[in-house]
Amino acid sequence: MGYAVRQSLRYAVVVAVLGIVIVPFLWIFLASFRPNSELIQQGIGINLDTLTLDNYRNLQQAAQYFTYLTNSAIVAITSMVVSITLALLAAYSVYRTRYPGRRPLYLALIITYVFPGVVLLIPLYQLMGMVGLIDNLLSLIIVNVTFTAPFSVWLMRGFFGAIPAGIEEAAAIDGAGRMRILFSIVLPLTAPGIAAAAIFSFVWSWTEYMFASAFIVDEGKKTLPVGLGAFIQQYNIDWGILTAAAVATAVPVIVVFAFIGRYFVEGLTAGAEK
Amino acid sequence: LKAKQTSFRTFLHDARTGSAPFGYLLVGPLVLWLVITIAIPLIYAVYVGFTDAGIIGTEADFIGLENYATVLGDAEFRSAFGKSLIWAVGGAVVQTVLAFATALALNQAFRGRRFARTWIILSWIIPTIVIAILWRWMLNASYGIINFFVTTVGISETPIDFLGSPKWALPTVIVINAWRWFPFLALLILAGLQSIPGELYEAARVDGANATQRFFNITMPQLQPVLYVVGLIGTLWAFNIFDVIWLLTQGGPSGATQTLPVMIYDRAFNGFAMGEASAISVLLCAFLLIFSVLYIMFVPAGESDTEVF
Lengths: 274, 309
Hints:
The complex is a heterodimer of chains A (274) and B (309).
Chain A: H1 3-31, H2 36-39, H3 54-62, H4 65-96, H5 102-111, H6 117-130, H7 137-155, H8 157-162, H9 167-173, H10 178-189, H11 191-207, H12 210-215, H13 224-234, H14 239-270
Helix pairs in contact in A: 1-14, 3-14, 4-7, 4-11, 4-13, 7-11, 11-14, 13-14
Chain B: H1 2-17, H2 22-49, H3 66-72, H4 75-106, H5 113-119, H6 122-125, H7 128-138, H8 145-153, H9 169-194, H10 198-206, H11 211-240, H12 243-248, H13 260-270, H14 274-298
């Protein structure tokens, strides 16, 4: 095959896959500005003259959007910080030190995904009730860390593997303390991996639905997915308000990702590069 | 100061050779966290499975294996187990094919590569509730855009009720979930692809290996360490997915998309049969645990040049 043919084939695949992922969002984004009456007509024609902000006005009246947004931000950011701290320490342990039982421990960390969230939902609900954490955002943070930290450990593996052997010893000879070694040598070297794991935890926590819907009843404590999720039942076929709700839920995480998204990809891949 | 340095060197040396508590100390907090949030609740779930607990938090009597007898004799349970298998296997096939194609394409050099690599993940960063609204609208039988194409192009004379017909619901939900997850999988594979030294391909080319041979003799073996972990975690994740199905179909129509997690949720929170739901949970965990053990025993982990695994 000629170079030009291969190059255009390459583009065709990339454009096709990107299209599959992105076009549905453009379609729903557009829909959120169209009047309800048009949304229940078949066809792909779009009347530009009738574009409106009505759906968003209705949404704002019907939902405490900014309360949900704040709660989601608190939950996602705190979950991310706690998860990364625990995962970083654990990753250093399983990838950079040697001790009996290290490999079984590592496998056990990964095997935590054996246990379905829904299985833990029932007992965790009761436990949270016992310690008074129902209707408390802390309950969501605790659960999000449980489900993000183990995989975050694995995401950081390439970076710990890439740190030259003996660098800690060298630093220790120079008189660096244990914490100093961790913070001024290991941390910078693994920063891209930490970024990737942080974004993974953030996105997971931002999108989490099941636990948030069970643990939070109070309207003022709901996260965005749960708060607007109630709409699906309530406004069953009011596609105007539903599409507006969908866009309003998606936009914050898309904005965050627009700024830090490339670190996610770089972090996933950079540690592996040779 | 000298003495302190020496002792710390000894300490580090011990940590690396296996006689110091340093490693345990660092991994300790995470292990403790997981014990409290997974192990203890799980033991509790096993206990509840032996009781006739109804609504959450009510008094319950110990009834031995009765829940297990009920569940194993229940046609609904066997059906849900079958759906779970179809869900996991079908999803894995669709996702792997899409992810590999995507990763291979994104591994090439082309203008706009960084944009493509960043935004391919869009469907994964979006909350499931948004995905549910999006696809319910696009797949609507009367005015959804997909059905507009289906009837216009002539795939079908009449619109297909993708989420509402027992025949179409499960494949549809599988494809939607694959659509959500394949970009993430693609990036993990891409990371693996980038770690393959270019010289390997050069050498193979010199030896006259064609693209197919290079893929199976270099790419696949080199990717093995990544595929090994992704295959295990991905399968476990797939089996445990609940929210996408629940928000799209609630397990319906008439159980067509009721996988085990959906059945557990439904029994526990709508059927008020906490004991039975816990028994199903325990069976699902046992199945996944056996799967994992067999996987670790029989699937090759691949050679990793770093000491990481």
